[in-house]
Amino acid sequence: MSTVDNPREAGPYLYLLVTMVLFGSAFTSSKVVVGQLPHDVAAMLRFGGGAVILVLLLCLRPGSGRFSWRDLFLAGLVGLIGVFAYNFFFFWGISLAPAIDGSVIVPVLSPVLTTVVFLLTGREGASPPRVVGLVLGVAGAVVFFVGIGTGTFTGSRLFGDLIYLVAAACWAGYSIASKRVLSGMEPLRATTYATGVGALALVITAIPTLSTADWSTVRTSTWANVVFLAVGPTAVAYLFYYRALRTVSPVTATITMFSVPVFGTVSSVLFLGESFTLVQVIGAVITIAGALLAVTRANPRVSRSAR
User: Fold this and answer.
1) Measuring CA to CA, how many Å separate 41 from each of 8, 9, 124, 207?
2) Fewer Cβ within 10 Å of end Cβ, the chain: N or C?
3) 65-74: per-residue pLDDT in tens?
4) What is the SS3 string spanning 190-259?
5) Cβ neighbour number for residue 99 with a 10 Å cutoff
6) Quick check: pTM over 0.85?
7) What are the backbone angles phi and psi of residue 186, rounded to the nearest 5°?
């Protein structure tokens, strides 16, 4: 039965689609926020607010009184990767480089890195198309970085794009680790614990910078973006991503991140007036094509036990 005929099978992919739309818009909103606030403070506000929303949802859910230190510990470790580390580097990178760069680097290279881990650990096969795809993905990334020099080149932009690479690695690790955590935990509880622990780490990191922020000059539109980031790309998107990961594999989940550059680019062009150089466009196309090859299984047949 196809996913169209069975809504239950289509559900995880709908969750992923909404998640990717929200992730794409997060680049633009985050760029607006770091324009007025330090990057670590912006990350703290986004995930501190998201954590509060998720805690309230968990408390309102029937059976919320059940608590396990083991669940908190496991989900918290994942949160340190996918919430704290990822967003620390994400907001750092977006404070230095255009949002449009991050909307290509992070979502495209995350599935490539996830696939590399699965290939190296023997959890998936290394077919010739996948190897070619990985090579193309790396080559496209090199072309993309070279393309920076043909446009508005600054040392901070190049450094910011390198920071985006670190964020992509964090997200790949988060996707892989989350699958194990979800095996014995409901999505809302896992998301709340992971986001709460990650947000707490972001708060601790931002404490030295809080006094340097000029709160009196923060515009109303900036606060509106903070609220949107906390509700949409954080509370809703992370919860939906966890729900999808209960059904699909980490590689499949990260494949859907190829749609993020579309949403992120459109948003950055419309609301921030950013643009690509021609060389960067070529590099992005090569990277996406290579990444699609890299994450595609050579043999689509799945064993009955795997199902």
Assistant:
1) 39, 39, 40, 8
2) C
3) 677 888 889 8
4) HHHHHHHHHHHHHHHHHHHHHCCCCHHHCCHHHHHHHHHHHHHHHHHHHHHHHHHHCCCCHHHHHHHHHH
5) 25
6) no
7) -70, 150
For residue 3, report the phi and psi dihedrals to the nearest 5 degrees: -65, -25
Compute the distance between CA of residue 183 and CA of residue 101 in angstroms, rounded to an integer. 34
Q: Which residues contact 197 (CB under 8 A, 6 or more apart)?
A: 72, 75, 76, 77, 79, 80, 83, 84
Query: What letter does residue 1 receive in the DSSP assignment?
Result: -
- Cα torsion angle, 287, 289, 290, 292, sign: positive
Contact of 13 with 245, CB cutoff 8 Å = no
Check: CB of residue 189 under 8 Å from CB of residue 69. Answer: no
Residues 6+ apart with CB under 8 A from 26: 229, 232, 233, 237
Nearest Cα residue to 82 out of 109, 110, 55, 63 = 110
Nearest to 197 by CA among 305, 283, 74, 97: 74
- The H-or-E segment that residue 117 falls in is helix 99-120
CB 83 within 8 A of CB 195: yes
- Asked if residues 54 and 239 have their Cβ atoms less than 8 Å apart, the reply is yes
Q: Check: CB of residue 182 under 8 Å from CB of residue 174.
A: no
Between CA 287 and CA 155 the distance in angstroms is: 23
Tens digits of residue pLDDT in 145-189 = 676 555 555 678 889 989 999 999 998 898 888 877 766 788 888
Q: Cα separation of 178 and 3, whole Å?
A: 24
Distances (CA, A) of 186 to 54, 182, 208, 306: 13, 7, 35, 21
